[in-house]
């Protein structure tokens, strides 16, 4: 059974190895480039303490590249699920070869189990190698930027991508088993995976561990640190508040002393016709002064950065369990609804 | 147009097809007149499908010349309209319904005969709304045949049309096929490894073995040209030059030979018997098998069945 | 033949529309959001000295989101090539149905030509709609940032995505025609197209038009604005206002020779101390050497020329591939 699986998989494996080699070569090049650049910037300042501007310039240099690469790494599990997972069973069902292979002296469950284990392992190795190299390449920047908890980077470092690959692969296989046609199964796999990868960081990840809460008084200074104020609907919201060494998962609306949301009328009044003080500083100027006068605060939920590794393990476990459940469903389905 | 009446249905000279190093069809010379039902027989892998795929232009020859209804195969849309083809595994679009297939035929063929198609589909009892992917092998063959026939071609080519059918269905299918050919006034070429089919419907025969055409001609001419000679052992070793020995069998006392003579058989002292079509074809196959692989008579006979 | 193309394509078309609808909705939302934010920042511009600040903050707010949208738009042609292009012929060849359809009264070339045109135009329409929406949504941002030639943004605005989609689709179709198997053709399509999209902005695009070359004196001030100076006399991150810098020479001395490594090394490691200290000293040390660099650049005014040239390049490539496919299908495919 192992030989059969390998024999059917070797063409795809070769393509995977070639793709991985290209990526690995680029990551290695990037890693050395980043290190050289880091040394260059470091050489410009006497000690690490007064190196702030240089290092922030350094991390800004690579910010976009690393974001793209994180997105690319996010695609790898999707591609694995699409090209290795979806055709695994669908191709057999489409060509009718399951009638050949299921009539050998191997049970269907055994057949599926070996396929899932072997190709699944290969998927995880590919994703793991890519993730390892990117984590290594980006580590000087990550150390400086200290934002590895951010939605995209978190899923493109360390062990999380391995679990994504396992999940995507099993998902693809199962969709192939249900849809029974290769190309539609591939399309559905990539669609489902993308939707899932969009939902988990935004909806599920913040709740893996109970968040810490804090109340932040919205002084003029605090307001001016926000990335944006207000929304299309005119609600009194603040976006882009940061807490040092933490991943902010939720920020409430602007609240008054009583805990009620600030009246929209007052908020908009401050926005459009704030009384001119003539001395207001910062990006929001008089608006900030006007809002601060109403003695507002926000409730912030956050996850401290120290929980990074707990989250990596929890998220990986979550995906692996999901992959296991899907695989279990696949086994059950294979036995119940033959051919 | 006098020329229109003069071209043969199928004309080949030195036709050869190679796949890499493998010779699928070698030096094939044919001149099949129109208005015939042509049987193409030979064992599996003899090159029957290659010849038919060449004839409908799905593949191009490596060397040699081929004319179908006077033009190179699939030369243009007008020529495509004159040739109908049903491939060996009767491909249909799995996601199309039967009605979709008829619509496709109507859209893609200017000479489409919708009433013929409707009548055929009703006759074989196909459900118009059914997806073609769910049809049985026999139903698929019927659908493919209907599409090929309703474009009203001058020449219908079938590659193993009855291979997927059970004996009863095959009988009906061959019957239909003959009705078609008669109704359309068309020529037809069909390949088969089942001699009984060919014997029933064909008036022209091509025997193809080991990538070569062994013999081709009108069935009645072939039967007139072939004879079985029975003589005491050894006496058949020296035959006149115009007598071609196709197959020689020896028992302890007698030798039996199937021979071909172009004209009248010279007077011989031995017993001369007529041969059946089956025996004649078997003789050619045996000869080809002996030349190509040195197989025994028995095994070659097995291959025919 | 058009009915036939539509009948075979309609499911894929439906999936395309279903996938495109949420993207279009999101782009509309983003466009309105950006406009609102822009107006708000603009209102702060009434006080002149805050305008620069406000605008840079406005850019920070939307940079990442727009980058990801550009990335998404870059993926759309690849997806079209993989799911609409690669299976177009390969699926027929794999299931043997070409033997049915090629024996109708339509020549193969016409069959392929109609399919290529029909689905090709659908691909271009999808890319055009997405590009149009993103171009509209991002226009306030683009106006402020002025980075018209940035690698991803250039390929995700205006005309180029349409040409990319045409090429990706034809590429997928021809690969499918040659490989005759759907899934490998899909994989190869994605590989080939990604490679092309990586090479194009880096290798080909800078040379689509003869760059303008200027000599820039490397004063201490100019050196301070650089991202870095290498010991081999290379400079990194030299920018020219309203232009895309495509090539920068090494640091050259007055005689036109690259400055020797030891001088640079001395300035980098042991510059003469001044009051400012740090990087300022290195810049001052190098600035005293009377150095200059030769810079190749493409002015932003050429943006539309580049859009047209690059689109024409991709369309021509697509045309050549289509021609090859039409030739090949007549000659070699059974």
Tell me what the structure shows.
- The complex is a heterotrimer of chains A (339), B (305) and C (334).
- By secondary structure, chain A is mainly alpha-helical.
- Chain A folds into 2 domains: 2-207; 212-306, no CATH class.
- Chain A is 67% helix and 7% strand.
- In chain A, helix 2 (52-95) packs antiparallel against helix 4 (108-145) and helix 4 runs antiparallel to helix 11 (308-336).
- Chain B is 37% helix and 29% strand.
- Residues 293-305 of chain B have low confidence and may be disordered.
- Chain C is mainly alpha-helical and 334 residues long.
- Chain C has 2 domains: 2-207; 212-301, no CATH class.
- Chain C has 11 helices and 5 strands.
- In chain C, strand 2 (228-229) and strand 3 (235-236) form a beta hairpin.
Q: What's the short version?
A:
The complex is a heterotrimer of chains A (339), B (305) and C (334). Chain A has helices at residues 2-43, 52-95, 98-101, 108-145, 151-154, 160-179, 182-204, 220-224, 264-272, 285-293, 308-336; strands at residues 212-217, 228-229, 238-239, 246-251, 297-304.
Defining key terms:
heterotrimer; B: about 300 residues; alpha/beta; Rossmann fold; Alpha-Beta Plaits; 2 domains; six-stranded mixed beta sheet; four-stranded antiparallel beta sheet; 11 helices; disordered C terminus; C: about 325 residues; mainly alpha; three-stranded antiparallel beta sheet; two-stranded antiparallel ribbon
């Amino acid at each position: 059974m192992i030989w059969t699986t390998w024999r059917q998989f070797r063409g795809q494996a070769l393509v995977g190895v070639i793709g991985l080699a290209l990526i690995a070569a680029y990551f290695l090049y990037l890693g050395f480039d980043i290190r050289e650049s880091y040394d260059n910037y470091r050489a410009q300042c006497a000690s690490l303490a007064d190196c702030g501007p240089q290092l922030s310039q350094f991390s800004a240099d690579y910010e976009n590249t690393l974001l793209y690469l994180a997105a690319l790494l996010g695609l790898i599990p999707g591609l694995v699920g699409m090209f290795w997972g979806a055709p695994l069973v669908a191709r057999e069902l489409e060509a009718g070869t399951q009638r050949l292979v299921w009539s050998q002296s191997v049970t269907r469950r055994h057949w599926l189990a070996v396929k899932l284990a072997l190709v699944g392992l290969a998927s995880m190795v590919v994703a793991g190698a890519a993730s390892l190299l990117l984590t290594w390449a980006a580590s000087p920047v990550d150390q400086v930027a200290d934002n590895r908890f951010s939605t995209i980077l978190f899923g493109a470092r360390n062990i999380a991508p391995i679990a994504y690959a396992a999940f995507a692969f099993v998902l693809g296989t199962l969709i192939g088993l249900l849809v029974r046609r290769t190309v539609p199964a591939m399309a559905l796999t990539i669609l489902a995976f993308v939707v899932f990868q969009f939902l988990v960081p935004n909806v599920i990840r913040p709740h893996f561990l109970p968040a810490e809460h804090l109340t932040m008084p919205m002084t003029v200074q605090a307001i001016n640190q926000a990335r944006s104020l207000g929304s299309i609907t005119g609600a009194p919201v603040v976006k882009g508040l940061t807490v040092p060494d933490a991943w902010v998962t939720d920020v409430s609306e602007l609240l008054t002393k009583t805990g009620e949301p600030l009246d929209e009328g007052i908020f908009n009044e401050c926005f459009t016709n704030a009384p001119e003080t003539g001395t207001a500083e910062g990006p929001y100027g008089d608006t900030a002064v006007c809002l601060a006068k109403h003695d507002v605060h926000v409730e912030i939920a956050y996850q401290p950065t120290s929980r990074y590794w707990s989250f990596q393990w929890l998220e990986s476990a979550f995906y692996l369990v999901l992959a296991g459940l899907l695989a279990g469903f696949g086994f059950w389905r294979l036995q119940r609804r033959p051919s | 147009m006098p020329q229109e009446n003069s071209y043969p249905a199928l004309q080949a000279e030195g036709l050869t097809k190679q796949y890499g190093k493998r010779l699928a069809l070698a030096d094939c010379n044919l001149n099949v007149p129109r208005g015939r039902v042509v049987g193409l027989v030979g064992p599996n892998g003899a090159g029957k499908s290659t010849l038919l795929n060449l004839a409908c232009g799905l593949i191009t020859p490596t060397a040699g010349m081929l004319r179908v209804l006077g033009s190179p195969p699939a030369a243009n849309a007008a020529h495509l309209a004159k040739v109908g083809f049903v491939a060996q595994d009767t491909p249909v679009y799995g996601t199309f319904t039967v009605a979709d297939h008829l619509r496709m035929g109507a859209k893609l063929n200017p000479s489409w005969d919708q009433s013929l198609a409707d009548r055929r589909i009703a006759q074989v009892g196909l459900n118009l709304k059914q997806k073609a992917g769910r049809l049985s092998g026999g139903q698929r063959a019927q659908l493919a045949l209907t599409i090929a026939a309703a474009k009203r071609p001058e020449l219908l080519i079938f590659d193993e049309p009855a291979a997927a059918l059970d004996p009863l269905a095959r009988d009906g299918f061959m019957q239909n096929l003959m009705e078609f050919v008669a109704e359309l006034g068309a020529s037809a070429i069909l390949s088969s490894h089942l001699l009984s089919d060919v014997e029933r419907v064909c008036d022209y025969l091509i025997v193809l073995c080991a990538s070569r055409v062994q013999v081709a001609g009108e069935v009645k001419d072939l039967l007139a040209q072939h004879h079985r000679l029975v003589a005491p052992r050894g006496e058949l070793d020296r035959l006149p030059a115009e007598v071609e020995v196709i197959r020689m069998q020896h028992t302890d006392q007698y030798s039996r030979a199937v021979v071909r003579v172009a004209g009248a058989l010279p007077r011989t002292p031995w017993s001369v018997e007529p041969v059946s079509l089956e025996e004649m074809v078997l003789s050619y196959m045996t000869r080809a098998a002996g030349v190509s692989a040195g197989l025994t008579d028995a095994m070659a006979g097995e291959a025919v069945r | 033949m058009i009915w036939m193309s539509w009948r075979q394509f309609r499911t894929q078309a439906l999936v395309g529309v279903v996938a495109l609808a949420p993207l279009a909705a999101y782009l509309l939302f983003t466009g309105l959001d950006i406009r609102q934010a822009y107006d708000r920042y603009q209102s702060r511009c009434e006080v002149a000295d805050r305008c620069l600040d406000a605008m840079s903050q406005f850019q920070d707010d939307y940079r990442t989101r727009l980058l990801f949208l550009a990335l998404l738009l870059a993926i759309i042609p690849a997806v079209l090539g993989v799911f609409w292009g690669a299976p177009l012929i390969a699926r027929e060849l794999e299931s043997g149905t070409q033997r049915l359809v090629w024996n109708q009264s339509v020549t193969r070339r016409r069959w392929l030509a109609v399919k290529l045109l029909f689905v090709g135009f659908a691909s271009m329409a999808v890319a055009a709609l997405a590009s149009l929406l993103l171009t509209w949504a991002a226009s306030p941002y683009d106006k402020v940032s002025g980075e018209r030639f940035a690698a991803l943004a250039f390929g995700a605005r205006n005309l180029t995505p349409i040409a990319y989609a045409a090429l990706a689709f034809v590429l997928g179709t021809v690969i499918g025609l040659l490989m005759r198997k759907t899934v490998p053709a899909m994989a190869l399509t994605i590989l080939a197209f990604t490679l092309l999209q990586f090479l194009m902005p880096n290798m080909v695009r800078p040379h689509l038009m003869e760059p303008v070359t200027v000599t820039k004196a490397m004063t201490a001030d100019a050196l301070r604005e650089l991202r870095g100076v290498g010991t081999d006399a290379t400079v990194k991150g030299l920018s020219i206002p309203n232009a895309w810098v495509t090539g920068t020479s090494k640091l050259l001395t007055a005689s036109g020779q690259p400055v020797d490594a030891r001088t640079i090394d001395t300035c980098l490691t042991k510059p003469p101390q001044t009051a400012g200290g740090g990087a300022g000293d290195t810049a001052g040390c190098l600035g005293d050497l009377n150095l200059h660099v030769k810079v190749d650049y493409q002015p932003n005014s050429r943006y539309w020329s580049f859009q047209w040239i690059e689109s024409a390049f991709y369309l021509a490539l697509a045309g050549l591939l289509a021609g090859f496919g039409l030739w090949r299908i007549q000659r070699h495919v059974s």
